[in-house]
Write a structure and sequence with these properties.
Two copies of one chain form a homodimer.
Chain A: H1 3-6, E1 22-26, H2 41-47, E2 53-57, H3 67-80, E3 84-87, H4 94-100, E4 104-106, H5 111-120, H6 124-132, E5 137-140, H7 142-145, E6 174-179, H8 193-200, E7 208-212, E8 216-220, E9 223-227, E10 232-235, E11 242-244
Parallel strand pairs in A: 1-5, 2-3, 2-4, 4-5, 6-7
Antiparallel strand pairs in A: 1-8, 7-10, 8-9, 10-11
Chain lengths: ~250, ~250
Amino acid sequence: MNHADENKFEPGQPTENHATRQLIIASTSTVFGGEYLDYLTDEMAQLFKDTDEIIFIPFARPGGISHDEYTDRAAKIFKKINKKLVGLHTFKNPIEALKTAKGVFTGGGNTFVLVSSLYRLQLMQPLREAIFNGLPYLGTSAGSNICGLSMQTTNDMPIVYPPSFKTLGVIPFNLNPHYLDPNPDSKHMGETRETRIAEFHTQSTVPVVGLREGSWLRVINNKIILKGKFKARIFEQGKQPYEIEPDTLINFL
Amino acid sequence: MNHADENKFEPGQPTENHATRQLIIASTSTVFGGEYLDYLTDEMAQLFKDTDEIIFIPFARPGGISHDEYTDRAAKIFKKINKKLVGLHTFKNPIEALKTAKGVFTGGGNTFVLVSSLYRLQLMQPLREAIFNGLPYLGTSAGSNICGLSMQTTNDMPIVYPPSFKTLGVIPFNLNPHYLDPNPDSKHMGETRETRIAEFHTQSTVPVVGLREGSWLRVINNKIILKGKFKARIFEQGKQPYEIEPDTLINFL
């Protein structure tokens, strides 16, 4: 594996056609008390309305489960909306598969593992281009993290060393999925999520959207809209964090 | 900055004299309701009994504070035990400073920032050798994380990209500082600390010691002993996690 070659991926270089984007970028796959993806099925059916077959990117491997096992788990849910889900790991030429895909879903797990796999297989750039060319894309958790400019506001442990922290950059900010408010009763002295994001802003000017579980971003052409029942928390360098309401257009970042 | 050169650091290569190690490796600098380092002052006075001057490594920069500011904060505490604390950033030749140091304290903050700085200044190897040569070392949080074989079980956000995740390797396992038990009442669907460490063990055979706040490891020559009031949680690949009592010798890992 040649890290130097993999690092050639440079978001911002290819033509970006924001007017064709179609994405659901969700904080979590599963809300408390719910089943896998159930709160999103209506939105998913709408996103993938023009295709019966969707490619699944299982590389984030939650809990280390196999690609097959993860694909099977997700495929069961897609069957309910009459869609066939096919694991990207089953294609001989995954780059070509992404170029011709009619829909992609990237599941959650460990963002470091996911990003390392995407670089190793040289899929970061083709996936980015496909999304800007109108590929309908669903991400949850780690699969959402990679939509941002970098994975540097992930909550995950660095269990593998990726060749870069740069990610797809199909939205012009970073995400913090599973965003968690500080617990005022906590006696734990570790950093809160808000403190961690403030530390990120000592190093970067990239805004961060803290997406609470049950929230998602719906990207339709040029618009990025907060969906779900909850507010999102916005972090910008040098500003006090602030909340935005559901259905807010967040193109201002 | 040449990443290839920095990656030359290879723990395990130099002569390791475990019989001369003198370390305090603490989960946190501050316990709930306490002041900075106050629960550790007796142990610190003992560790640093043979020197009046200790070098402070401020590079983890909690909340992004400056090296001077962080050194001043820590120096106030060391004054109480009649020790002078000098920031490593004030030395013209920090490599030489570590080689001749009589005591070192590395404070907490962001482990990615700390590790990036240590590599950039080529300090990882000199610090490792100094510790194996008997340099008394105190670490808290990020400063403890770097004592393990890698920083891959840190809780911190990857806000900068270090040239490697390898760390000092002056103890033969990894740490998870600020270890936090799962909250049975939580409705949050993000991974627990235990789940994250289990994911690490899908990638690595390195054991992990979950150190609760208020616990520390005291390394005296060949012995590594759990200190403080709390049990620690041990994670080994392929085993159920288990607890060990204070004052347990953990040379078995």
